[in-house]
Amino acid sequence: MKRNEWLWSLAGFAFVSLGGTLLHYLYNWTGQSTFVAPFSGINESTWEHMKLLFWPLFVFVLIQAPHFKQYKSFWCVKLLGTVVGIISIPVLFYTYNGAIGKSPDWINIVIFFVSAAITFILETILLKKDSLPCRRPWLAVAVFCVIGTLFVAFTFITPRLPLFMDPVTGTYGR
Q1: Are 73 and 127 in contact (CB under 8 A)?
Q2: How many CB atoms lie within 10 A of CB 109?
């Protein structure tokens, strides 16, 4: 029997929204702990906001996986949804800022929630069909791990690209 995908998506959206919001403040709440830095927002760069979406999505995938074993495309759908979600943050942010100019903070918050919603809507539609080709689920898991590794590494070794620059301080990384 298939799980209720929309109910799981609603729970996932709530989990990711709450988790991402908490991670936004966790670094400062812990006195800028080196241990929490790879998983929380360390500045206001677009990259750090992508990280705030990735980690709760990744944790939710791990929670959801044992309940969705009957879906042959589970890992590929979750990877695609996650990648679309994290990419939608800079796409929406830079599109809005390019068209309108500097965005107020509330728009940036909306962008985070819209990106999370896009993720779960896409995943739910694809899971209901369960037809996305996924011949090597282990490869999807490996790509999740690579993305997580990049979020950790770029926290400490930050590329000097606009995506990684804190617009408030003009600095990069920690």
Answers
A1: yes
A2: 15
Phi and psi, residue 9, nearest 5°? -65, -40
**d(C-alpha 154, C-alpha 139), whole Å:** 22
Q: What values do phi and psi take at 134, rounded to 5? A: -145, 75
Give the residue extent of every domain in the chain.
5-164
Is the pLDDT at 3 greater than 70, yes or no?
no
pLDDT in tens, 128-151: 888 888 889 999 999 999 999 999
The more confident residue out of 121 and 172 is 121
How does residue 2 score in pLDDT terms, banded at 50, 70 and 90? low
Burial of 168 (0-12, 13-18, 19+ CB in 10 A): exposed
Cα dihedral 158, 31, 115, 60 in deg (nearest 10):
100
Collapse the DSSP code of 51 into the 3-class scheme (helix H, G, I; strand E, B; otherwise coil) and give the result.
helix
Mapped onto helix, strand or coil, the DSSP state of residue 100 is: helix
Two tokens, residue 169: 């301080």
- Could you report the per-residue pLDDT of 79-90, keeping only the tens digit for each? 999 999 999 999
